[in-house]
Amino acid sequence: MKKRAVILMMDSFGIGNAEDAAQFHDEGADTLGHIATKRGHLNLPNLAALGLFKAAQASTGKEVQAGPQTAAKVNLPSKYGFMREISRGKDTSSGHWEMAGCPVDFDWGYFKPDYPSFPQALVDEICAKAKLPGILGNKAASGTAIIEELGEEHIKTGKPICYTSADSVFQIAAHEKYFGLDNLYRVCEVAFECVKPYNIARVIARPFVGEKKGEFQRTKNRHDYSVTPPHATVLDAIKNAGGSVISVGKISDIFAKQGITKAVKASGLEELWNVTLQEAKTAPDFSVVFTNFVDFDMVWGHRRDVEGYAKGLEYFDTRLPDLAAQLDENDIVFITADHGCDPTYTGTDHTREHVPVIMFGKNVKPQFIGRRDTYADLGQTLADYFKLPPLAVGKSFLDK
Question: Looking at the DSSP assignment, which residues form a beta bridge with residue 293?
Fold first, then answer.
């Protein structure tokens, strides 16, 4: 009998502020709760049937004000609860790595948000080694906003647009046609080496197209250059034991390809779902399909778009029956997140929150599993499911 797992990572989908939220200036953040309250209704019948609202209420002590739900089409047993993060950051890398059994117990380096964000010595080094005439931007910014602001100047001058955020990142936007995608990747590779002394987690290539302001659009050829996790993860354990780890979206980049046996590119909520369903359907025995649904964070969370986030959640919910219908007897599915990004909160940064953890499948024992003390409980459960040696961190909730 096949044993396969699917991880649906809803990037930034927090369900209530964590115990240490005050240390991150995020007191009161609640991505799910505030979206439901501000919008007035939120129809997530399948997620609700799997225990999402109960997990959120356990996290916050408050009932989610989502309004009446339509009939659920997913009627499989589930375990549900919420997890707290023990990593020192509230960023993408920290959340994903901890979930896979490798919490980040060190501090990332960050660039200051105001102009100029980057040390002049770093800018000079990148320009010299990449043979650039200079850079544009040099500040913290929304990726879409800074492309609108500087896209035309970038095309005229050939200078890439470099910016950062509240994450530990150095981002480089450039035009696919006028700058060239391969050239952008080359510059990012140079920058990745140059930022190493600053302890930066990722350099991100942000390609775009369009001829003038108002027409610029980012493409799906984004590529993240990430440092490797400091310790082996459950993904490494699966791969080393002969299993398959199938990355959909940016998962492979986040783990710097470590523990990945197949990487499939996809972008946008619909395409990510389509690819996930196809990979889950054809995945062999002893495999995990791991998908990052980045739009919740990149498109709606950071842009503080409550309506967009709500519609994205509702669409996500409508695709769950498609996955449930093709599960084999022993398949399991996890639904979780890597941090919060409350679209009603001040600023545009991630928010330190609990995240949901739901596991469902035909043979899952239904159970409320309460508060999990680390995201690594998910990785430990995955190791337990595949009968691998236990990870150094986390407690399995497989048969608890």
Answer: 10
The encoded tokens of residue 159 equal 């200078």
Residue whose C-alpha is closest to residue 111's, from 168, 194, 173: 168
Do 145 and 166 form a contact (C-beta atoms < 8 A)?
A: no
Q: Give per-residue pLDDT as tens, 230-265.
A: 999 999 999 999 999 999 999 999 999 999 999 999
- What are the C-alpha distances in Å from 380 to residues 88, 234, 235, 391? 20, 8, 11, 6
- Chain segment 94-127, per-residue pLDDT in tens: 999 999 999 999 999 999 999 999 999 999 999 9
Q: For helices 120-130 and 181-194, what crossing angle results, to 10°? A: 130
In whole angstroms, how far apart are CA 250 and each of 32, 105, 222, 229, 320? 23, 23, 9, 15, 21
Give the number of other Cβ atoms within 10 Å of residue 117's Cβ.
21
Among 245, 282, 238, 239, which residue's Cα sits nearest to residue 262? 245
Cis peptide leading into residue 45 (ω within 30°): no
pTM: 0.93
The string of pLDDT tens digits covering residues 252-306 is: 999 999 999 999 999 999 999 999 999 999 999 999 999 999 999 999 999 999 9
Q: Which of 354, 355, 336 is nearest to 17 (CA)?
A: 354
Query: Per-residue pLDDT tens for 181-212?
Result: 999 999 999 999 999 999 999 999 999 999 99
